[in-house]
Design brief:
Length: 305
Protein backbone atom coordinates (compact mmCIF):
# COMPACT_ATOMS: atom_id res chain seq x y z
CA UNK A 1 0.00 0.00 0.00
CA UNK A 2 2.75 2.44 1.03
CA UNK A 3 4.36 2.21 -2.42
CA UNK A 4 1.42 4.16 -3.87
CA UNK A 5 1.28 6.92 -1.29
CA UNK A 6 3.44 10.05 -1.41
CA UNK A 7 3.10 12.72 1.26
CA UNK A 8 4.08 16.31 0.47
CA UNK A 9 6.89 17.79 2.56
CA UNK A 10 4.35 19.93 4.39
CA UNK A 11 2.11 16.99 5.28
CA UNK A 12 5.07 14.81 6.25
CA UNK A 13 6.40 17.51 8.58
CA UNK A 14 2.91 18.14 9.97
CA UNK A 15 2.30 14.49 10.75
CA UNK A 16 5.72 14.18 12.38
CA UNK A 17 4.81 17.08 14.68
CA UNK A 18 1.35 15.62 15.40
CA UNK A 19 -0.45 18.54 13.79
CA UNK A 20 -4.05 18.19 12.59
CA UNK A 21 -4.29 17.49 8.85
CA UNK A 22 -7.25 18.38 6.61
CA UNK A 23 -7.82 16.49 3.36
CA UNK A 24 -9.09 18.30 0.24
CA UNK A 25 -10.46 16.72 -2.94
CA UNK A 26 -9.31 17.49 -6.47
CA UNK A 27 -12.39 16.87 -8.62
CA UNK A 28 -13.53 20.30 -7.53
CA UNK A 29 -10.28 21.63 -9.08
CA UNK A 30 -10.41 19.73 -12.38
CA UNK A 31 -14.16 19.39 -12.97
CA UNK A 32 -15.73 21.94 -10.64
CA UNK A 33 -14.06 25.21 -11.56
CA UNK A 34 -12.34 26.71 -14.62
CA UNK A 35 -8.62 27.54 -14.77
CA UNK A 36 -7.20 29.77 -13.31
CA UNK A 37 -9.87 30.30 -10.61
CA UNK A 38 -9.54 26.63 -9.66
CA UNK A 39 -5.85 26.90 -8.77
CA UNK A 40 -6.29 30.28 -7.09
CA UNK A 41 -9.16 28.96 -4.98
CA UNK A 42 -7.30 25.77 -4.08
CA UNK A 43 -4.34 27.84 -2.86
CA UNK A 44 -6.56 30.19 -0.87
CA UNK A 45 -8.41 27.28 0.72
CA UNK A 46 -5.10 25.71 1.72
CA UNK A 47 -3.99 29.00 3.29
CA UNK A 48 -7.24 29.28 5.27
CA UNK A 49 -6.53 25.85 6.70
CA UNK A 50 -3.01 26.88 7.72
CA UNK A 51 -4.33 30.11 9.25
CA UNK A 52 -6.66 28.03 11.40
CA UNK A 53 -3.95 25.80 12.80
CA UNK A 54 -4.12 22.76 10.54
CA UNK A 55 -2.16 21.40 7.59
CA UNK A 56 -3.83 21.13 4.15
CA UNK A 57 -3.52 17.94 2.10
CA UNK A 58 -4.96 18.27 -1.39
CA UNK A 59 -5.26 14.74 -2.79
CA UNK A 60 -4.80 13.74 -6.44
CA UNK A 61 -3.45 10.89 -8.56
CA UNK A 62 -0.26 11.87 -10.36
CA UNK A 63 2.19 9.59 -12.16
CA UNK A 64 1.03 6.37 -10.55
CA UNK A 65 1.00 7.77 -7.01
CA UNK A 66 -1.63 8.99 -4.59
CA UNK A 67 -0.34 12.43 -3.71
CA UNK A 68 -1.32 13.52 -0.22
CA UNK A 69 -0.60 17.22 -0.46
CA UNK A 70 0.46 18.85 -3.73
CA UNK A 71 3.42 21.13 -4.30
CA UNK A 72 2.77 24.50 -5.89
CA UNK A 73 3.99 23.22 -9.26
CA UNK A 74 1.85 20.09 -9.04
CA UNK A 75 -1.24 22.12 -8.23
CA UNK A 76 -0.60 24.46 -11.15
CA UNK A 77 0.03 21.57 -13.56
CA UNK A 78 -3.02 19.66 -12.31
CA UNK A 79 -5.38 22.64 -12.47
CA UNK A 80 -4.22 23.56 -15.96
CA UNK A 81 -4.37 20.06 -17.51
CA UNK A 82 -7.02 18.93 -19.95
CA UNK A 83 -8.68 15.55 -19.73
CA UNK A 84 -7.94 14.74 -16.10
CA UNK A 85 -9.92 11.60 -15.24
CA UNK A 86 -12.58 11.81 -12.56
CA UNK A 87 -11.52 9.18 -10.06
CA UNK A 88 -13.98 7.46 -7.77
CA UNK A 89 -13.49 4.15 -5.87
CA UNK A 90 -13.71 1.95 -8.96
CA UNK A 91 -11.14 4.00 -10.91
CA UNK A 92 -8.23 4.07 -8.44
CA UNK A 93 -6.48 0.83 -9.43
CA UNK A 94 -6.65 1.52 -13.15
CA UNK A 95 -5.51 5.13 -12.94
CA UNK A 96 -2.57 4.31 -10.68
CA UNK A 97 -1.46 1.39 -12.84
CA UNK A 98 -1.64 3.46 -16.02
CA UNK A 99 -0.09 6.52 -14.35
CA UNK A 100 -2.87 8.79 -15.58
CA UNK A 101 -3.84 12.04 -13.91
CA UNK A 102 -6.81 11.47 -11.64
CA UNK A 103 -9.02 13.90 -9.77
CA UNK A 104 -10.35 12.31 -6.64
CA UNK A 105 -14.08 12.55 -5.89
CA UNK A 106 -15.42 12.63 -2.37
CA UNK A 107 -15.44 8.81 -2.32
CA UNK A 108 -11.87 8.45 -3.57
CA UNK A 109 -10.58 11.28 -1.39
CA UNK A 110 -12.07 9.54 1.67
CA UNK A 111 -10.29 6.31 0.73
CA UNK A 112 -6.96 8.07 0.22
CA UNK A 113 -7.35 10.16 3.38
CA UNK A 114 -8.00 7.05 5.45
CA UNK A 115 -4.93 5.36 3.96
CA UNK A 116 -2.92 8.40 5.12
CA UNK A 117 -4.54 8.48 8.60
CA UNK A 118 -6.44 11.70 7.96
CA UNK A 119 -9.91 11.84 9.55
CA UNK A 120 -11.15 15.27 8.50
CA UNK A 121 -11.94 16.24 4.91
CA UNK A 122 -13.24 19.56 3.59
CA UNK A 123 -15.10 19.96 0.30
CA UNK A 124 -18.00 21.81 -1.35
CA UNK A 125 -20.81 19.34 -1.91
CA UNK A 126 -21.22 15.57 -1.80
CA UNK A 127 -22.71 13.31 -4.43
CA UNK A 128 -26.00 11.59 -3.62
CA UNK A 129 -29.09 9.91 -4.95
CA UNK A 130 -30.01 11.51 -8.26
CA UNK A 131 -33.52 12.52 -9.15
CA UNK A 132 -35.15 9.62 -10.98
CA UNK A 133 -32.81 7.11 -9.34
CA UNK A 134 -35.80 4.78 -8.88
CA UNK A 135 -35.30 3.90 -12.54
CA UNK A 136 -31.74 4.99 -13.41
CA UNK A 137 -30.17 3.62 -10.19
CA UNK A 138 -27.83 6.63 -10.29
CA UNK A 139 -26.59 6.79 -6.72
CA UNK A 140 -23.18 8.33 -6.06
CA UNK A 141 -20.42 6.06 -4.78
CA UNK A 142 -19.84 8.87 -2.24
CA UNK A 143 -22.72 7.50 -0.17
CA UNK A 144 -21.32 3.96 -0.04
CA UNK A 145 -17.97 5.42 0.99
CA UNK A 146 -19.58 7.41 3.78
CA UNK A 147 -21.04 4.09 4.94
CA UNK A 148 -17.68 2.36 5.27
CA UNK A 149 -14.73 4.73 5.47
CA UNK A 150 -13.82 6.56 8.66
CA UNK A 151 -13.54 10.12 7.45
CA UNK A 152 -15.77 13.09 8.31
CA UNK A 153 -16.79 15.25 5.34
CA UNK A 154 -17.37 18.94 5.94
CA UNK A 155 -19.53 20.23 3.09
CA UNK A 156 -22.32 22.71 2.34
CA UNK A 157 -24.93 19.95 2.06
CA UNK A 158 -26.13 18.49 -1.21
CA UNK A 159 -27.16 20.33 -4.35
CA UNK A 160 -30.73 20.07 -5.50
CA UNK A 161 -29.51 18.54 -8.76
CA UNK A 162 -29.96 15.52 -6.45
CA UNK A 163 -33.03 14.10 -4.75
CA UNK A 164 -32.14 15.40 -1.30
CA UNK A 165 -34.90 13.44 0.45
CA UNK A 166 -33.75 10.12 -1.03
CA UNK A 167 -30.13 11.00 -0.29
CA UNK A 168 -31.01 11.42 3.39
CA UNK A 169 -32.96 8.14 3.38
CA UNK A 170 -29.97 6.34 1.89
CA UNK A 171 -27.60 7.82 4.46
CA UNK A 172 -30.00 6.81 7.23
CA UNK A 173 -30.10 3.21 5.97
CA UNK A 174 -26.30 3.16 5.89
CA UNK A 175 -26.00 4.59 9.39
CA UNK A 176 -24.25 7.79 8.37
CA UNK A 177 -24.89 10.71 10.73
CA UNK A 178 -25.84 13.98 9.05
CA UNK A 179 -24.95 16.90 11.29
CA UNK A 180 -26.05 20.49 10.74
CA UNK A 181 -23.31 22.87 11.81
CA UNK A 182 -25.28 25.55 13.63
CA UNK A 183 -28.46 24.61 11.79
CA UNK A 184 -31.47 22.28 12.07
CA UNK A 185 -31.99 22.29 8.33
CA UNK A 186 -29.79 20.57 5.79
CA UNK A 187 -28.30 23.28 3.57
CA UNK A 188 -28.58 22.81 -0.20
CA UNK A 189 -25.17 24.09 -1.29
CA UNK A 190 -26.12 27.41 -2.97
CA UNK A 191 -28.87 28.06 -0.44
CA UNK A 192 -29.13 27.64 3.31
CA UNK A 193 -32.49 25.89 3.02
CA UNK A 194 -33.51 22.53 1.59
CA UNK A 195 -36.74 21.83 3.43
CA UNK A 196 -35.15 18.76 5.10
CA UNK A 197 -33.99 18.36 8.70
CA UNK A 198 -30.53 17.18 9.65
CA UNK A 199 -30.19 14.41 12.24
CA UNK A 200 -28.36 16.55 14.79
CA UNK A 201 -27.63 20.23 15.15
CA UNK A 202 -24.16 20.81 16.61
CA UNK A 203 -22.85 24.30 17.26
CA UNK A 204 -19.15 24.01 18.05
CA UNK A 205 -16.08 22.27 16.57
CA UNK A 206 -15.38 20.66 19.95
CA UNK A 207 -18.79 18.97 20.06
CA UNK A 208 -18.41 17.71 16.49
CA UNK A 209 -15.00 16.29 17.44
CA UNK A 210 -16.49 14.57 20.50
CA UNK A 211 -19.23 13.00 18.41
CA UNK A 212 -16.69 11.66 15.90
CA UNK A 213 -14.48 10.33 18.65
CA UNK A 214 -17.35 8.51 20.37
CA UNK A 215 -18.55 7.00 17.09
CA UNK A 216 -15.13 5.72 16.08
CA UNK A 217 -14.18 4.61 19.59
CA UNK A 218 -17.18 2.30 19.42
CA UNK A 219 -15.80 0.83 16.23
CA UNK A 220 -18.76 2.14 14.22
CA UNK A 221 -17.18 2.33 10.84
CA UNK A 222 -18.10 4.94 8.30
CA UNK A 223 -17.94 8.67 7.96
CA UNK A 224 -20.16 11.58 8.87
CA UNK A 225 -21.61 14.46 6.93
CA UNK A 226 -21.01 17.79 8.63
CA UNK A 227 -23.20 20.22 6.72
CA UNK A 228 -22.18 23.85 7.02
CA UNK A 229 -24.49 26.38 5.36
CA UNK A 230 -23.17 28.91 2.85
CA UNK A 231 -22.79 32.37 4.44
CA UNK A 232 -26.05 34.32 4.17
CA UNK A 233 -24.45 37.13 2.16
CA UNK A 234 -23.19 34.71 -0.52
CA UNK A 235 -26.28 32.51 -0.85
CA UNK A 236 -28.18 32.52 -4.15
CA UNK A 237 -31.88 33.26 -4.42
CA UNK A 238 -33.85 30.02 -3.98
CA UNK A 239 -36.22 30.55 -6.96
CA UNK A 240 -33.35 31.66 -9.22
CA UNK A 241 -31.19 28.59 -8.60
CA UNK A 242 -34.15 26.18 -8.63
CA UNK A 243 -35.17 27.31 -12.09
CA UNK A 244 -31.64 26.91 -13.38
CA UNK A 245 -31.24 23.44 -11.90
CA UNK A 246 -34.53 22.35 -13.51
CA UNK A 247 -33.21 23.57 -16.88
CA UNK A 248 -29.92 21.74 -16.39
CA UNK A 249 -31.77 18.50 -15.54
CA UNK A 250 -33.87 18.76 -18.71
CA UNK A 251 -30.74 19.29 -20.82
CA UNK A 252 -29.01 16.29 -19.25
CA UNK A 253 -32.05 14.15 -20.06
CA UNK A 254 -32.28 15.45 -23.64
CA UNK A 255 -28.58 14.79 -24.21
CA UNK A 256 -28.75 11.27 -22.76
CA UNK A 257 -26.01 11.98 -20.21
CA UNK A 258 -25.18 8.91 -18.10
CA UNK A 259 -22.84 7.44 -15.52
CA UNK A 260 -19.92 9.48 -14.24
CA UNK A 261 -20.72 12.30 -16.68
CA UNK A 262 -24.03 13.22 -15.05
CA UNK A 263 -22.71 15.28 -12.15
CA UNK A 264 -20.02 17.21 -14.10
CA UNK A 265 -22.57 17.91 -16.86
CA UNK A 266 -25.12 19.30 -14.40
CA UNK A 267 -22.50 21.34 -12.54
CA UNK A 268 -21.23 22.77 -15.83
CA UNK A 269 -24.71 23.71 -17.02
CA UNK A 270 -25.54 25.39 -13.72
CA UNK A 271 -22.34 27.40 -13.98
CA UNK A 272 -23.11 28.41 -17.57
CA UNK A 273 -26.74 29.35 -16.87
CA UNK A 274 -25.93 31.41 -13.78
CA UNK A 275 -23.25 33.28 -15.72
CA UNK A 276 -20.66 32.82 -13.04
CA UNK A 277 -22.82 33.59 -10.01
CA UNK A 278 -22.73 29.95 -8.99
CA UNK A 279 -18.94 29.97 -9.22
CA UNK A 280 -18.68 32.87 -6.76
CA UNK A 281 -21.04 31.10 -4.36
CA UNK A 282 -19.11 27.86 -4.76
CA UNK A 283 -15.80 29.54 -3.91
CA UNK A 284 -17.31 31.30 -0.89
CA UNK A 285 -18.83 28.16 0.58
CA UNK A 286 -15.69 26.07 0.17
CA UNK A 287 -13.68 28.72 2.01
CA UNK A 288 -16.30 28.79 4.75
CA UNK A 289 -16.07 25.01 5.02
CA UNK A 290 -12.28 25.24 5.26
CA UNK A 291 -12.58 27.48 8.33
CA UNK A 292 -15.01 25.13 10.09
CA UNK A 293 -13.21 21.97 8.96
CA UNK A 294 -9.84 23.09 10.25
CA UNK A 295 -11.36 24.03 13.61
CA UNK A 296 -12.90 20.56 13.81
CA UNK A 297 -9.54 19.00 12.89
CA UNK A 298 -7.80 21.03 15.61
CA UNK A 299 -10.43 20.00 18.20
CA UNK A 300 -10.30 16.35 17.15
CA UNK A 301 -6.53 16.37 17.32
CA UNK A 302 -6.63 17.77 20.88
CA UNK A 303 -9.06 15.08 22.02
CA UNK A 304 -6.75 12.38 20.73
CA UNK A 305 -3.42 13.67 21.93
N1 LIG B 1 -21.24 17.93 -6.04
C1 LIG B 1 -20.88 19.22 -6.00
N2 LIG B 1 -19.65 19.58 -6.44
C2 LIG B 1 -18.75 18.64 -6.87
C3 LIG B 1 -19.15 17.27 -6.89
C4 LIG B 1 -20.39 16.97 -6.47
O1 LIG B 1 -21.67 20.06 -5.60
O2 LIG B 1 -17.63 18.99 -7.25
C5 LIG B 1 -18.15 16.24 -7.31
C6 LIG B 1 -17.48 15.64 -6.08
O3 LIG B 1 -16.15 15.28 -6.41
C7 LIG B 1 -18.30 14.39 -5.82
C8 LIG B 1 -18.60 13.96 -7.24
O4 LIG B 1 -17.64 13.40 -5.09
O5 LIG B 1 -18.83 15.16 -7.96
C9 LIG B 1 -19.77 13.01 -7.30
O6 LIG B 1 -19.90 12.50 -8.57
P1 LIG B 1 -20.94 11.31 -8.85
O7 LIG B 1 -22.29 11.94 -8.66
O8 LIG B 1 -20.67 10.90 -10.26
O9 LIG B 1 -20.65 10.26 -7.86
MN1 LIG C 1 -23.62 8.73 -10.68
Amino acid sequence: MKEFIVLSEEVKAGQAKGLPIVALESTIISHGMPYPQNVKTAREVEQIIRDNGAVPATIALIDGKIKIGLSDEELEMFGNSQGVAKASRRDLGYLLATKKLGATTVAATMICAELADIEIFVTGGIGGVHRGAETTMDISADLEELAQTNVAVICAGAKSILDIGLTLEYLETKGVPVVGYGTDELPAFYTRQSGFDVNFKIDTPEEVAEMLRAKWQLGLKGGAVIANPIPESEALEHSFITEIIEKALVEAEENGIQGKNVTPFLLGKVKELTEGKSLDANIALVKNNAVVGSKIAVAYNKLNS
